[in-house]
Each structure stands twice: as structure tokens, then as C-alpha cells.
Design brief:
single chain, about 500 residues, alpha/beta, five-stranded mixed sheet, about 10% strand, elongated
């Protein structure tokens, strides 16, 4: 049997399946649009001038590149009168289109058709990739930058190629400007490259420093903002305390986001076994191929370890979806490794397993997509029902204002308020040039007879008691409660 021909056929089949799933992704984006809680924030941000977007992004403890990319995509599609939410989705799908092209060109050229096909399929169906290509957030772009950078690590190991060092540094900066955990992944990658240089190829130390310096120079404009954000996080942040379960979920997230500790443990054990296997091969044969495998797996692991240490020692900063983009390196390694197995029947078996797990991931994530879509439809109907002259909206915090103000523009609104003699005012009010009038509850409500007050608060906030008034949660949109305040009869 000519296995090479069958291997090429299998690789081409994986490309075709990946392309079909990509088409399905576009269909889902059109047919089942949805907004996550952060997607609402993204939508609200787009209504602001770019300079204000960057300021609010800084307050929200995120770097700005994703929003700049999103503005460009929405502006281009706006020429064709494209729906805003659909445009936001397409902006998140574009990274996979680029990944698919890279799998079809560079990855296929360097490692063969099967490796490229497996990577193309895996980077769409494994982990929570499929869902994140449909979510109006920055994660799909972080996946792209990490994926693209890791492709150019191999020439560094083979030839100490300065061009590849520079390409990696550019993608590292793009990733760091997209999401801070992408920056953590690149720090892990550069640390491992430094270890490689010191142990295996000290002639490459000059190029390592050149690459690092380029990255530092390109990221310097955002450095002061990052320091301010770190101080802000230190004083208080919304992420829950870290736990051993979180760490296990992170290690298992490269396969699936299925909410089961047993599944996460199984995925973590498989990753550990694979790492041991690669390490064993490396100790037998310290060639570039095994070094490349080891760096990819360890960079993912170090990203999680760094996040866990910071979360336990400094401040909780890690959630599972933050480390997910770094798993792109794992799937490059797995795809190449499977394609090069000497036991060809095992190659077929593992490829079929990838297909099965990928299909299961899509099926599970589609359940979530349907739920999010149905929820968004109901949420929009509710917002429309209170978006009128009889409503007074009080936003408790920047996030609530950014998420919902565009849908409540016919109501009277306030962003600074006093409740039970406790004053709530926000720094973002000045940044956006909003009316800073203080709305006093219940005193000012008495001045608006017949009107209903809706206080939008975080789900962790308590429903306060106000003498002479009823306060009840009228609705909840993701983690935001709409507290309806009316006078007792």
C-alpha cells in the first residue's frame, strides 16, 4: 500500500473538512448572532471616537489593538451596509481565514499535507476555538498571532535566521497589544528560546537580544498604561480567586472547554504523557524537530504556570479563556507529530480521534451558541420595552454604560448617583464628557412622578432598601441586574 498517497489524501480531506466547518461558521454568524457580556461592551465601544475607545480600553484593563482592527473591519463592511453585530463576528472569523491560508501554504510546505490539514482542522474545532471565532472579542486574533509566531520558531532553531527572529518579535508585539495573556505566552516562548540559546547555540544570543529589543521598543508606547493598569488590578479586580481546579481546567483546555473536571483531568494527563514522550525522544535525539516540539508544549505550560503563580501570590488574574490562545502552539506540535509517526495505522487512528473530538466540540459549542442567540433576542426585546421617555436609567459603573446605552438612548440617564446617602461617581464620566449631574435616590425620583427608575448594577451587588419604594430585579442580562425602583402605593 502506498501510504504516502493515502497520507496526502487524508491531509487534503482534513483541509476540505476545515473549509466546510469554516463555511458553517460563517452561516452560524449570520443565522445565530449573539452577544456575550463582553460582546455588549465591544458593541458599545464602537459608538465612541477612536481616541475615547483607547482611553476606555485602558480603564477596562485591556490593550487596544483588537479594537483598532475591529474599527477598520466594521468601517469597510459598513460601506456595504452590513449589520453591526455581523460585522463584529466577521472581524473575529478573519483570523481563522489567515490561519487556514498559513496551514495551506507555509505549514504544508514545511511539514507536509497531513500536518497542515490537521492543524487547519484542529485550530477551528478544538478547545473553544469555534466559539471564539464567533465572539466579538480579541481571542481569535491572539490565536492568530501566537500561531503565526510559532511557525517561525523552527527556522530560528535550524538556522538562527535573523529574519525569523524579527518576524517572531513583530507577532509577539501584535499579540501583546491584543491580550495580556498572549504577552505572557510570548514571554514564556522567549524564555525557552533563551534557555535553548544558552544550552544549545550560544552564537544565537545576539539575534535573541535583537529580537527582544525590537519588541521592547515597539511596545514602549503602551508601557506606562500597562503599569497604571497593573496598579488598578492590584487594588481590585473582578476575577475570582484561583484554585487547583482552575489550573487543571487550563491544562485541559487545549482539547475542549466541556465543563467537566474529569474531562479536564483526562486532557491534562494526556498532555503530560505527550510531554514526557517528547522529552524522552529529545533526550535520545537532541535534534531540531524534538526541540521545536518541546518548546511549543512547554510554552503553553509555562503560560498557565505563570498565570497560576501570579493569581495565587499577587492577585487573581487568570481564567481559562485567557490561556486558550497559547494552546495554538500545542496543536501545531500535535499535528506535525501525528503526521510523522512511523506507525501509520496509529496516524490514521489519531487523525480519526481528532475528527471525533472536533465534531463533539462543535456540537457542544453550538448548544451554547443557540442559548446565547435566544438570550440576545429576549434581551433586545426587553431593552426596547424600557427605552422610552417614561424610563430613567442609572448606570452603576462604566461597563454597564458601555454595554447598554446605545440601546437605551430614548430614556433619561445618569451615570453619577446617590443611593441611601452613598455617592457613586466614576472616572470614565469625565473621559467621555458625559453629564455628571448627580441623581439622588429617592429624592430626585420624587421630581419625576409617573416615571420608572432602572438601576443597572453588577450581579454581585445587593438590592438596596429605600424607604417608601419597592426595589426588585426586573431583568438580568448576563451579569447585569436591572433593578426596578417604584414608589409604594
Amino acid at each position: 500500500m502506498n501510504f504516502k498517497a493515502n497520507e496526502d489524501f487524508l491531509g487534503k480531506l482534513m483541509y476540505v473538512l476545515a473549509f466546510i466547518v469554516l463555511g458553517y461558521t460563517l452561516y452560524v454568524a449570520v443565522r445565530y448572532p449573539f452577544l456575550t457580556v463582553d460582546g455588549w461592551f465591544t458593541k458599545g465601544l464602537l459608538s465612541l471616537p477612536i481616541t475615547q475607545q483607547i482611553s476606555i480600553t485602558a480603564i477596562d484593563v485591556h490593550p487596544p489593538l483588537y479594537y483598532l482592527i475591529l474599527n477598520a473591519v466594521v468601517s469597510v463592511l459598513g460601506v456595504f451596509n452590513a449589520d453591526l453585530i455581523l460585522s463584529m463576528k466577521i472581524a473575529s472569523i478573519i483570523p481563522y481565514v489567515i490561519i487556514f491560508i498559513l496551514c495551506l501554504t507555509k505549514l504544508r510546505k514545511d511539514y507536509g499535507t497531513l500536518a497542515g490539514g490537521l492543524a487547519a482542522f484542529s485550530l477551528l474545532t478544538m478547545s473553544a476555538y469555534f466559539n471564539h471565532y464567533l465572539t466579538a472579542r480579541m481571542y481569535s486574533w491572539a490565536i492568530l498571532f501566537i500561531f503565526a509566531a510559532f511557525l517561525y520558531v523552527k527556522p530560528i532553531l535550524e538556522e538562527n535566521d535573523l529574519k525569523s527572529w524579527i518576524i517572531v518579535s513583530v507577532f509577539a508585539v501584535l499579540g501583546a497589544y491584543t491580550h495580556y495573556f498572549a504577552a505572557v505566552a510570548f514571554v514564556a516562548l522567549y524564555f525557552l528560546l533563551f534557555v535553548y540559546v544558552i544550552i544549545r547555540n550560544r552564537d544565537a544570543i545576539k539575534n535573541w537580544f535583537i529580537s527582544v529589543i525590537i519588541g521592547i521598543i515597539l511596545y514602549a508606547p503602551w508601557a506606562l498604561t500597562l503599569l497604571r493598569q497593573m496598579r488598578s488590578v492590584k487594588s481590585g479586580y473582578w476575577i475570582e480567586p484561583a484554585s487547583l481546579k482552575l489550573v487543571v481546567d487550563c491544562f485541559g483546555s487545549y482539547i475542549t472547554f466541556y465543563p467537566s473536571l474529569a474531562v479536564s483531568i483526562a486532557g491534562s494527563v494526556l498532555l503530560l504523557a505527550f510531554t514526557i514522550l517528547i522529552l524522552k525522544d529529545y533526550l535520545k535525539n537532541m535534534d531540531v524537530e524534538n526541540e521545536y516540539y518541546l518548546i511549543g508544549i512547554l510554552a503553553f505550560a509555562l503560560t498557565i504556570i505563570a498565570g497560576a503563580v501570579a493569581s495565587f501570590v499577587y492577585k487573581p488574574i487568570m481564567i481559562v479563556r485567557y490561556v486558550m490562545p497559547a494552546s495554538a502552539m500545542v496543536w501545531i506540535v500535535i499535528s506535525i507529530y501525528i503526521s510523522k509517526l512511523n506507525v501509520k495505522k496509529l496516524t490514521i487512528i489519531l487523525t480519526v480521534l481528532v475528527l471525533i473530538v472536533g465534531a463533539a466540540n462543535i456540537a457542544y459549542q453550538m448548544q451554547e451558541v443557540h442559548e446565547l442567540h435566544d438570550t440576545m433576542v429576549k434581551d433586545l426585546e426587553y431593552l426596547e420595552s424600557i427605552n422610552n421617555n417614561n424610563s430613567i436609567i442609572v448606570y452603576d459603573g462604566m461597563q454597564k454604560y458601555m454595554r447598554f446605552h446605545d440601546n437605551l438612548d430614548n430614556a433619561t440617564y445618569y451615570v453619577n448617583y446617590e443611593l441611601n446617602n452613598e455617592t457613586h461617581d466614576e472616572a470614565y464620566v469625565k473621559t467621555l464628557g458625559l453629564n455628571d449631574t448627580l441623581f439622588k435616590v429617592p429624592k430626585d425620583l420624587d421630581k419625576h412622578p409617573g416615571k420608572t427608575l432602572y438601576l443597572i448594577r453588577d450581579h454581585r451587588g445587593t438590592v438596596d432598601h429605600v424607604d417608601g419604594y419597592k426595589m426588585k430585579t426586573d431583568n438580568k442580562i448576563h451579569n447585569c441586574k436591572f433593578i426596578k425602583i417604584t414608589k409604594n402605593n
